[in-house]
Amino acid sequence: MVSRHYFDLELESLHQDLVEMGSKVQESIDNAINALKNQDVELSRQVFKNDDIIDELEHKIERKCINLIARQQPLAKDLRSISTALKIITDMERIADHSADICELTIKMADQKYIKPLIDIPKMAEAAKKMVNNAIHAYVTQNVELAEKVCADDDIVDDYFVKVVDELRELIRENPDVVYQATNFILVAKYLERMGDHATNISEWVIYNVTGVHKDLNHDDLTKIKVNK
Amino acid sequence: MNVKVIDKIATVIFYTIAIIITLILFGLLCFILVKGLSGISWDFLTKPPENLRAGGGVGPQIFNSFFLLLLTMLFTIPLGIGGGIYLAEYSKPNTITYAARLVIEVLSSLPSIVVGLFGLLIFVQKLGMGFSLFSGALVLMIFNLPLMIRITEQSLRAVPVEQKEASLAMGISHWKTITSIMLPIALPGIITGTILTAGRAFGEAAALMFTAGMSSPPLDFTNWNPLAPNSPINPFRPASTLAVHIWKINSEGLIPDAAQIAASASAVLVICVLFFNILSRWIGKLIYKKFTAA
Amino acid sequence: MLSIIIITVITYFIASKGLSTFFKNGINLFDFLFGTQWKPEHDTTPLFGAFPFIFGSFSVTILAVLLSTPLSVGAAIFMAEISPKWGAKFLQPVIELLIGIPSVVYGFIGLSIIVPFIRNTFGGMGFSLASGMIVLAIMILPTITSVSYDALKSLPSGLKDASYALGATRWQTIYRVLIPTALPNILTGIVLGMARAFGEALAVQMVIGNVQRLPSSILDSVSTLTSILTLEMSNTIAGTTYNNALWSMALILLLMSFVFIMIIRILGKGSKLNER
Amino acid sequence: MVTCNNISLDQKDIAIETRDLNIYYGSKHAIKNLSMQIKKLDITAFIGPSGCGKSTYLRALNRMNDLIPITKTTGKILFDGININDKNVDLATIRQKIGMVWQKPNPFNKSIYENIVFALKYYGIRQKQILDEIVEDSLRKVALWDEVKDRLHKSALALSGGQQQRLCIARAIATKPEILLLDEPTSALDPISSGKIEELLFELKQDYTIIIVTHNMQQAGRISSYTAFFLLGDLIEYDETNVIFTNPVVDKTNDYIMGRFG
Questions:
Q1: Which DSSP symbol is given to C273?
Q2: Helices (DSSP H) in A73-217: which residue ranges?
Q3: Which of A182, C71, C238, D79 could form a disulfide with A168 if both were Cys (CB 3.0 to 4.6 A apart)?
Q4: Which value, in Å, is the radius of gyration of the alpha carbons in chain C?
Q5: Cβ contacts (< 8 Å) between B293 and chain D: which residues?
Q6: B55/B2 same-domain check
């Protein structure tokens, strides 16, 4: 018989750690985008530091989950909560990693003038950030509808990705000199697209946590991919 | 033969045995009561016995039996409970304790006539108490002490060790633990055992023939001076009890209505013993209820 | 402590009295134990052969145990295995009451029922070894029954279940599994019964006839150690050879009860060894 | 023998400390050279297979082994600056400060009220008002007050098993002990009652140092902060419960925790 009181206290503290990690991740994305827009090296370095903190948080939460599993033998809903926490911290950590990756590119391009003003990338970043925010919020509030909305929103980010990549290809074709920056921006777009995927993953785990059913809402329908001529 | 048939036969045999034993008891009881009750009257219960003529009673014998029982229990209960407490709680597992246990076991299985003869030798002859209620009570004490010690010891040992530990663990002394925690729990067992012991003492004859004597002086029930020879409460007078009386009239057979008197006296004896038996069950149940009632 | 003193004193006094027959009065121990002539008051050559009484005691005890054991062990099995419900409700109180009935009452009943019954059925006096045997058998029945019942009850229940699970019938279970396992304790009960029968005085004395010679059949009258003690102790004068001889018999009774205790102890050890 | 004792506490955090303790049970060496410190106001659990010595050790902490004549205890048990294992120690004082609760609920054959005040009266507290206060306070601490306040003078044996066990804890804390020793306090109870007791212990650790012996490893995991694993009289491993349950150093501990003990 689980001593609920103690277990609930532990679960509560786990929850708070996750919220803290979530807000750190959101902060990372924000800072990464701002640094990219403003070519701000200082802010980029701050994101790296933040990433270390997030990694540490991930380990801390991981230990807490393992201790809880070892000592409390959670079952049913409790077990889902803890395994969900274990899964989503990985996704959150990856999101933070991608923020750091973007900052790395920002620093590399810090003393260059951008080949074009950034228009779609900030929009895409905004959409990806919204997804991540919503996913974390969905976890905190255990809101299945919001989680499903996050999964649906992934299409928006994907559309931005196609659009940005097409546009950058066009730029390279026009002027091959921009290839260095353009490929970097393609990478930035890919990172943002991955963030959306991780947010979707988080949402899927939130749905699993509440309903007990794990639905794969992430992947595009691979059968629809056509040969690009 | 088929094992199942054998099984059936065996079962039938066991049932038969059970029925036989039950029939024996009911036969005995019915015989005694039917034959005895007709002879029981107020006169019979109060009048002194006749030596040669018919129509005597067993009044003094009944009184003697109860008085002797009282004396015996007066000796037996404190010593028995004390001994039981010692063996259960204070004795160390050494040679002396082992010897004491062995001796108690031997003592409890001594033939009553041997104990009686010993009483004759020591109390009656050596210590000069003569044939007296006092000698009889001492002999019955020897006879009953082992049982009483064993009952007390067993009742105390049956007290769950957790109860004892709970009390000791709060720093309460051993003696206080015994008196306040253990004895109350052991009490039903001790009381039941005591009453059964009393029943045994009540019906005992062989040990008393040579100690309390086989005859009673004429008693004056108005004389309450414990030192007067004819006072009923003088513990140093000889006294025959009901059980001894039954034996005596049967073996000597000087009175013409010996058989009838023996039957009636037996009935009285059996009724008393039955009463002790029922009383002990009843008290046991009552105390048990009192302790466990919500 | 007190009980140690008591037992020592008892043994000492009875032994000193009992042994004086042989040391002071110069009776040969062998003659006493195995002499068949008991003529203590013969003017010129008194004979103190206690063998008839010793024989009487042993024979009536053994016969009573033989008669009582099947009944009591059967009753114990009935209570423990065949019908625990009826056993607990009916037979157990019956057994307890039988224990409580005083021995003089048993003697009186023997006198009023069994003796006439034997006289009318088999002839003779009726006061006989057979009457003593029946009275004692009834007396020790509750002792053996209750000890055997406890022995059977305290067997681990897994034992019985295992036997039934192997497809054994109830009788096979009882006969092959339960009785052998409980045997040391059942034997203890039987020995306790024997001890009681051997030491019983009045009930036996009342029905056995008290003829001081060796019986030729179980319908003959006999005497036992206890009956002769009961009858003669108060008729003899302390210090005489006759009186001392009686004390020697008391000593035999005492020693026999030691022997019974020894047997019970050995049986008890045996059963503990089995448990391991 | 590979052993690992990772707990070393500041003097002010130690509730009771054992140094070089040896307990012999007849010819059996029940506890071998045991040294360990127990944290104040926290829960420490002793685990290990039957016969590992954990209960024997627990009983040594308030000298309950004195009841078994064949036990011999050497070494030091330091509590409040005195050695409990000293012959001249006043047992009553020690046992008053170190309370004990057993596997089987063992309320006295008395009323609920009498159960709690029995020891207090023995120690000379007579004023009814004080006794009443302690009774209420103790029963409230074990969350039993509301269930029994209307039948304080009824027999304690009429309570359910779980209630009885809580009463026993109340009885133990009525004498205001500093340490509570619990010898498998829930193994005779149903899961719901066990859960209540566990929760209660969790509350009580704010006021008392709790040492619990348990066969139920999961229970140790759930409620204790420190866990000591015993095997055949040796302290095999002693560490924070988190460490013991996720990453024990000694293989034997690992096997036991994983339930692979043969």
A1: H
A2: 76-108, 120-141, 144-174, 179-211
A3: A182
A4: 22
A5: 155, 158
A6: no
Using a CB-CB cut-off of 8 Å, the residues of chain A touching D204 are none
Pairing of strands C47-48, D234-240: unpaired
Q: What is the CATH number of the domain that holds B209?
A: 1.10.3720.10
Domain count, chain D: 1
Q: What angle do CA A219, A221, A222 make, to 5 degrees?
A: 95
**Which of A1, A10, A11, A68 should be substituted to probe chain D, the one whose Cβ sees the most D Cβ atoms within 10 Å?**
A1
Tell me, what amino acid is at D79?
F
- One-letter amino acid of C249: M
- Locate D162 and state its tokens: 């779980």
Q: Are residues B89 and B12 in the same domain?
A: no
Q: Report how far residue A188's alpha carbon sits from residue B85's, in angstroms, rounded to the nearest whole number.
A: 90
Measure the CA–CA gap between B266 and C106, rounded to whole angstroms.
9
Contact with chain D for residue A71, Cβ under 8 A: yes
Q: Kindly give, in sequence order, each residue whose CB lies less than 8 Å from that of residue A14, ignoring residues fewer than 6 positions away.
A: A61, A64, A65, A68, A82, A85
Q: Which residues of D143-167 are buried (b: 16+ CB within 10 A; e: fewer)?
A: ebbeebeeebeebbbbbeebbbbbb
Please tell me whether residues B173 and B77 are part of one structural domain.
Answer: yes
CATH number at residue D55: 3.40.50.300
Q: How many domains does chain B have?
A: 2
Alpha-carbon span B205 to B247, nearest angstrom: 8
Say which amino acid occupies C16. Answer: S
| Domain coverage including residue D83 | 4-106+177-257
Residues B119 and B33 both lie in one domain: no
Q: Which residue has the tokens 């029940």?
A: D30
- Residues D195, A7: C-beta atoms closer than 8 Å: no
Domain of B240?
43-292
Fold of A2-224: Methane Monooxygenase Hydroxylase; Chain G, domain 1 (1.20.58)
Q: Enter the pTM of the model.
A: 0.74
Residues B33 and B168 in one domain: no
DSSP E strand boundaries for chain C: 38-39, 47-48
Evaluate whether residue D161 is within a structural domain: no
Give the closest-approach CA distance of D197 to chain A in angstroms: 9
Query: Do the Cβ atoms of A110 and A173 come closer than 8 Å?
Result: no
Q: Which residues of B touch D172 (CB under 8 A)?
A: 169-170
Residue D181 within a domain:
yes
Digitized pLDDT (tens) for each residue of chain C, 276 residues in all: 566 666 677 777 777 776 766 666 666 776 667 666 777 666 666 667 777 888 888 888 888 889 888 888 888 888 887 777 777 777 777 787 778 788 888 888 888 888 888 888 877 777 878 888 888 888 888 888 888 888 888 888 778 788 888 877 888 888 788 888 888 888 888 888 888 888 887 788 788 777 777 777 777 777 788 887 877 777 777 767 777 777 888 888 888 888 888 888 888 776 554 443
